[in-house]
Amino acid sequence: MSPAPTVLIVGGGICGNALAVLLRRAGIGVDLVEVSSDWNVQGSGITLQGNALRVLREVGVWEEVGRAGFGFDTLGLIAPDGTVLHVAEDIRTGGPGLPATLGIRRPDLQRVLTGAVRAAGARVRLGCTVESLEQDGGGVDVRLTDGTAGRYDLVVAADGLGSPVRAMIGIEDRPEPTGMGIWRVTAPRPRGVERTDLAYGGPAYIAGYCPTGEDSLYAYLVEPARERAELPPSSYAARMRELAAGYGGAWEEIRSSISEDSAVNYTWFHRLLVEGPWHRGRVVLAGDAAHACPPTLAQGAAMSLEDALVLAELLAGGAGWDEKLPAAYRERRMPRVRMVVENSVRLGSWLMEGVRDADVPGLIGRTMTVLGERP
């Protein structure tokens, strides 16, 4: 009998963790390396649409994720003063058995996924990453930053937006800022907040919040990107409170809870879509290493999870692991990913340009209808 194939996954975020579990289920040997020594158990909150939840169900963690998060099926549009303007039924892109949307604290989601990776039997190394790669027609020789080395049938770079492996294999695409920045914070959930409410206008482009549990939510404010040199971390809480002061309703209670600078996160929105091949030989990109978009459609994590699902299906399908396989993976993913990246960027551009007659509901509806189909 020939030995079971082996895969090195670089990056222990949402994409890498899901892929590790799916590959182990298929009997494929998996080593996972993550540069963060704490396995990235940090962050505020995340919004997961139904198509993301569908993949998490395939991974086998949906029930635990569902218990840890807060699911809902409607979306509210509010005025800056908190007045509810419209409540819409959201599209269940994961099918009738799943909520349209689920909010969850990022550390809780990561805890569930890392537990599943351990239980699946993947070999995990934290605090290290790839130092060098050399490949031939039969495999990839990898040296890690902890001094160890190994040979693998395939290497998957799921190492994020700034992917060092992407650069290492000569793919020159780089993320580009879109001109927006976002403030995020975890806060107690005010009584009566049971869905995402979005305010367009006021001091920020978007003011929104998403419940992440019985007692928690995460809130966010989107504004023109600020230079980081202007933003000492010791000013984060005060700056977010100042921006939040332009909003009423639940924002009054949320704003009063923003007190710790370390609890506030500020990042820029970026766009990335690797237009050429997503691989070089036996090294292939996945998740944010291949594509990323502003969270205006809340689809970044979903696209990464779908990458993991599709790549795992192809690797477990019995076909040879040659150039045809990563090419088929990109061909299957690219139309869907391109739609999400371009539409996410378009929504942001409309806000920055103040386009008043933009068909925002139509764009969102068309996008979500497509995402309701299996990737």
Helix content: 25-40%
What's the gyration radius in Å? 21 Å
- Give the uncertain stretches in residue-range form: none
The helix/strand series, from N terminus to C terminus, equals EHEEHHEEEEHEEEEEHEEEEHHEEEEHHH
Q: What is the approximate shape?
A: globular
What is the helix tally? 10
Alpha-beta classification: alpha+beta
Order of strands, main sheet, comes to 6-5-14-15-16-13-17-20
Describe this structure in words.
- This protein is of the alpha+beta class.
- The protein has helices at 14-25, 50-59, 62-68, 106-120, 164-168, 236-244, 250-256, 300-315, 324-353, 360-371, and strands spanning 6-10, 29-34, 45-49, 70-72, 74-78, 84-89, 101-105, 123-126, 130-136, 139-144, 149-152, 154-157, 176-188, 196-201, 204-211, 216-224, 264-273, 279-280, 283-285, 291-292.
- It has an 8-stranded mixed β-sheet, with helices on both faces. Strands 8-2-1-12-19-18 form a 6-stranded mixed β-sheet, covered by helices on one side.
- A hairpin with a 2-residue loop joins β14 (196-201) and β15 (204-211).
- α1 (14-25) runs parallel beside α4, α1 (14-25) runs parallel beside α8 (300-315) and α9 (324-353) packs antiparallel against α10.
- The longest helix has 30 residues, at 324-353.
- It is globular.
